[in-house]
Amino acid sequence: xxxxxxxxxxxxxxxxxxxxxxxxxxxxxxxxxxxxxxxxxxxxxxxxxxxxxxxxxxxxxxxxxxxxxxxxxxxxxxxxxxxxxxxxxxxxxxxxxxxxxxxxxxxxxxxxxxxxxxxxxxxxxxxxxxxxxxxxxxxxxxxxxxxxxxxxxxxxxxxxxxxxxxxxxxxxxxxxxxxxxxxxxxxxxxxxxxxxxxxxxxxxxxxxxxxxxxxxxxxxxxxxxxxxxxxxxxxxxxxxxxxxxxxxxxxxxxxxxxxxxxxxxxxxxxxxxxxxxxxxxxxxxxxxxxxxxxxxxxxxxxxxxxxxxxxxxxxxxxxxxxxxxxxxxxxxxx
Length: 334
Fold this sequence. Notes:
Elements: E1 2-6, E2 16-19, E3 29-39, H1 41-48, E4 61-62, E5 67-74, E6 86-89, E7 102-106, E8 110-112, H2 119-123, H3 126-139, E9 147-150, H4 156-167, E10 171-176, H5 181-187, E11 191-194, E12 207-212, H6 217-225, E13 227-235, H7 242-247, H8 252-261, H9 263-271, E14 275-278, H10 285-296, E15 304-309, H11 313-321, E16 328-332
Helix pairs in contact: 3-4
C-alpha cells in the first residue's frame, strides 16, 4: 500500500511517499481502508521530533493521527464493528499511521462515522473533537452559565470547542483575527477579541475556564490572571506536568523533568488559587461516539478550510504550519 513515512526526525525533513506492506491486525483490531485523513499540527511536531522524549517512534514510521474509512477486516474478538462499517478514529499513540491507504485500529479507539457527515468531514473531527471533549467535559466539567475563554477560536480545536462549550451552556469568549470574526460568531462565540488590536487581559475577568493553546509565556501568565479563584486553565501547549507524566506511565526521571518544566506555571496557579492542567489528548472511542451523536443532531458542524489530494501531504503540512487554517485541513486518500 502507499503511505507517507517519516524517514528521520527534523524540522526540515519531509514525509516520503513509499510502498509498504499493509498492516496485519490483532484479535482486538479492525483493518480500515482510509478514505480521508485529517492533518494536524501534531503531525508536524511528531515529524520534527518534539515529542520523541515520551513518544519515541522508531523510524521509519507512517505519520498521521486522524482518519475516516471503511472496515475491511475484523479481529476474532471484535464485537462492535463489522466489515463494511463506515468509521472514524484518532488511533492510539504508537498505533498512528493515517497517512496511508490502510490502518489497523484498536476496537476501543474507533467509532461509527456520523451518518450526516462525508468521509472528508468525519476525518476532520477525531483529534480536535476529543481534545475539546477531554478539556471541557472531562477536565473542566463545564456547567451551564459558566464563562469560558477559548484561545485561537478559528483554529481546528477552537472551532470545535466553541460549539461544544455553547452546547454545554457556557458564555464563550475567544480570540481571532479580524478576518475570522464572523466565522467564530457563527459558531456561537459571545465575545470575540481581535488579538491584533486588543489584549484579552484588559477585557476578560473572572472566567471559570481557559482553554489555552498559545506557546508564549506571557499569554499563559495573562490567562491565569483572568480566572476567578477556583477556576481551571487547561493547556494544550504546556508546560507538561508531573501529573501528566504519571498518567502517561512515564518513568520517575520524566516526572522529575516535567515537575521542573512546569514549576513556574504551577506556582503562579497556586498563588492565584486556580487549577493548572496539561492535556495531551488520548484516543477514546466511547467519547468519539458521544461526539457522533452531537454531529448527527446538528449541534456541532465540522469546519474545513482546505482539502488536499493524498500526493500533496507535505503541502498540507506546510499549510498547517502557517497557522492560518480556518478549522481543519484534510487529505482525500480514496
